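Re: weekly structure request thread

Next one in the queue (288 aa):
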Amino acid sequence: MTIDQNWDAFASQEKYLRALAFRFLHNSLDVDDIMQEAWIRYDQIDKNNISNLEAWLTTVVTRLCLDNLRRNRRFESDYNLINHSLGEYEPESSVELNCNIETAFNIILAKLSPSQQVALILHDIFDFTFAEVGKILQVSEGTARRQASRARKHLRNNEFRLNQRKFNESEVQRVVSAFLAAAQEGNVDQLISVLHPGVVRITDSGSVIRGSEKVIAETIELRANAQMANTYSLKGRPIIVVGSQCDPKLLLSFTVYDKKIMAYNVTANRNQINLLMLNKRDSFDFSI
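Done, posted below.
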């Protein structure tokens, strides 16, 4: 096969492979790296050794994703996937979903091993048989089945976290207020005390920062924004608005669990912020 023929064959599977990789990594840059590495491996291998192109590429991409998970232990929330399924990003949806979806996924998935994630996603979402999952994970069919079973059991045991009433709203308010105060003061120790080590910061443009060190560094760098910010309540949940009520610059909504900020979302689109605040003015409390 020529290079062009090789690429055409690879490109015919690219959309599916990207969707598969994104299920595991939830980050387009990481997916790009995986796809590039998969292409290099495909381009270099003797094509006579490939009897089923889709199966071969699926195995390669999944194993690369598994290596990435094991190397980085990067279990972020399904936030990007959730937003993709919802359609256009809506700040109100972000606020309302934080407690009942994002927190649950972020916390529960963080406790699954990489192999459990792969077994669960491949079998329950992509309809792979456990024999196929086992080959990809390089384990027996029975072991693959047990990995998925343990993942499901863990999810079932933690379903209660999807219930918003399990979250103490006053505690969430205290944590968010403490975060803003620390940001305004540039108090690193206080920021460490309220941020989960694996905290994720996500913007409406798709930018993602992972880890408390990076989030703290950015927070300190953007201290001037914090000086212009105040906490408010939207539908009983605390948010931070940078700027005035009449001219909001940014809106931050939070996922809090066990007195730590697990993730927060930053909305910068003026039209979206203004629409939210105008439509939901009666649900805003400016007295916090």
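The longest strand covers residues 248-257. DSSP finds 14 helices and seven strands in the chain.
Next request, please.
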